[in-house]
Design brief:
By secondary structure, the protein is of the alpha/beta class. Helix content is about 35%, strand content about 25%.
């Protein structure tokens, strides 16, 4: 179902320079979209047109099949439903405290004092910002300012959240927090739209990518169709994602095959081909030069075993003592290992009571009695629950992909996930299993 449409949208600057030059797009509800393109391609201007900040000089923007109207009352309604977060949070933060900044939107929507208080407190808790409520925004880090700017939009409970370069000027930790937050908002049914120069982010995150150039939509589609097109990337002056470049090199050497991958997990699947060539392995016991050896995976390491018939086998290029590395040539057959499992525990969202409604002793008992090699957390309430239970997570970014990669190495993972993010883990694992690659077991339970 379409939530936003544009029809022959055009807009030019006062000096006559065209910024948007005939854009027709249809944005479906609940999707994650990334707009990519060089500076000056019109991304920021398009975003301002989508929420009514700018009025088109030609064409129209439709929200829920209705054209935007530009009187004050109509625009207030639109901006309640389509929130925008600017690239520089300092352009958005101006109140004396974080609380007052987040309250600005609800106050201007005419909410009662009690509803304003409720909206702000709920938003601060959901975004793990409660401890900052009385701090001046100018005393915050770049990542904290970005989260507060997002909170100011989330507090108005919009259907659509637009973010202009959401990861600009953030360190890896701050960037990971923002992307986790966007994933959490997506599970609440929000439509998330971002602009970015980061093709690696767009390729692994978005459901749909729009490539912009000179005020037009040059191409749109699934990330795999966009970023696998080298000619398109060169023409629009975008670089290939690192995963795609790596795959192309592996493909040229006969190490990988199949569809162009968009994630590290996809890349690893593409390398499970029938011919491997020469591999480095660790000797399980003493090996003689020229000896035939079997190969298998153990916790991510290729192990060479003499005198054992394996589906994957090759010939040692040198003598090697047990525990030493050895090169093996003429390797044929797919490498395999026993996969681990992913056990997901659903933690109530903040609006469902969060960590206060969790049986912490039960979580501790599960963690202690079961054999989990790695622990991941997704979402604010899951992170707080882990801290209360004294569980130190091993991974908090790209949790679904990381969990599957660990499972493919034979490791068992426990994932604490807030609300609908738990169901998302199960869904992604099931989708991956349907592709015909090695099966990963995944179970889910309530906390």
């Amino acid at each position: 179902m379409a939530i936003i449409e544009t029809r022959d949208l055009k807009y030019g600057y006062p000096d006559g320079t065209p910024a948007i030059n005939g854009i027709d797009i249809t944005i479906e509800k609940g999707k994650k979209l990334a707009f990519v393109g060089p500076n000056g391609s019109g991304k920021s201007t398009l975003f301002l047109l989508l929420n009514g900040t700018l009025k088109p000089q030609h064409g129209m923007v439709l929200f829920h099949d209705r054209p935007l109207r530009y009187d004050s009352r109509s625009l207030n309604e639109v901006r309640k439903e389509i929130g925008i977060v600017f690239q520089n949070p300092n352009d958005q933060l101006f109140a004396p405290t974080v609380y007052h900044d987040v309250a600005f939107g609800p106050v201007n929507l005419g909410y009662t004092n009690d509803k304003v208080e409720s909206c702000v407190n709920s938003t601060l808790e959901t975004l793990d910002l409660t401890q900052l409520r009385n701090k001046p925004p100018h005393h915050l880090s770049s990542g904290q300012k970005k989260k507060v700017a997002i909170a100011g939009v989330v507090a108005m409970e919009p259907d659509v959240i637009i973010l202009d370069e959401p990861l600009s000027n953030l360190d890896p930790g701050g960037a990971g927090e923002i992307m986790e937050l966007l994933s959490e908002l997506k599970t609440l049914g929000k439509t998330i739209i971002i602009s970015t120069h980061d093709v690696d982010l767009a390729s692994r995150w978005a459901d749909v990518v729009y490539v912009m150039k000179e005020g037009k939509i040059y191409r749109s589609g699934h990330p795999s169709s966009i970023f696998s097109d080298r000619a398109l990337m060169e023409h629009t002056k975008l670089k290939l994602p690192a995963i795609v470049e790596t795959f192309r090199e592996f493909e040229a050497r006969g190490i990988a095959e199949g569809h162009v991958p968009m994630t590290l997990l996809d890349l690893m699947d593409s390398m499970e081909c029938s011919y491997i060539g020469v591999r480095c392995a660790v000797a399980d016991r003493d090996i003689r030069k020229g000896q035939q050896v079997g190969l298998f995976m153990r916790e991510g390491t290729i192990i060479a075993v003499p005198h054992i018939v394996q589906e994957t086998a090759g010939r040692a290029l040198s003598d090697a003592a047990a525990g030493d590395e050895v090169m093996v040539e003429d390797v044929r057959g797919p490498l395999s290992s026993e996969t681990g499992c992913i056990h997901v525990v659903r933690i109530p969202r903040v609006i469902e009571g969060g960590s206060r409604n969790v049986d912490l002793e039960g979580i501790r008992a599960l963690f202690e009695k079961a054999t989990f090699d790695r622990v991941g957390v997704m979402g604010t309430s899951a992170r707080v629950t882990a801290a209360k239970a004294g569980i130190r997570p091993d991974f908090e970014v790209d949790v679904i992909q990381s969990g599957m990669l660990f499972a493919l190495r034979g490791l068992n993972c426990l994932v604490l996930a807030s609300g609908g993010m738990a169901d998302l883990v199960k869904k992604r694992v099931d989708e991956r299993n349907q592709s015909g690659h090695r099966h990963i077991r995944c179970s889910i339970e309530m906390s």
